[in-house]
Specification:
Number of strands: 5
Number of helices: 0
Oligomer: single chain
Bound molecules: zinc ion
Order of helices and strands: EEEEE
């Protein structure tokens, strides 16, 4: 018998964004907009407190 203490990686996303208001983890953006091929804007809505905010992600070149 083997006990696994590792957190299953499939259960969590690669990253999450904390709510800017209450700090709750937001798993997926409500809405995403590709500003250009290297810039993506995400609109987040917190289910806990209802706060909405935007983040802008710049995709780095490899
Ligand atoms: Zn919140």
């Amino acid at each position: 018998m083997r006990l696994s203490t590792a957190t299953p990686t499939q259960a969590r996303p690669r990253y999450f964004t904390p709510c800017a208001q209450c700090g709750d983890a937001l798993l997926a953006p409500e809405w995403s907009e590709h500003v250009n091929e290297r810039c993506v804007r995400h609109l987040w809505t917190c289910e806990t407190c209802g706060y909405q905010f935007e983040t802008t992600v710049y995709l780095g070149s490899k």
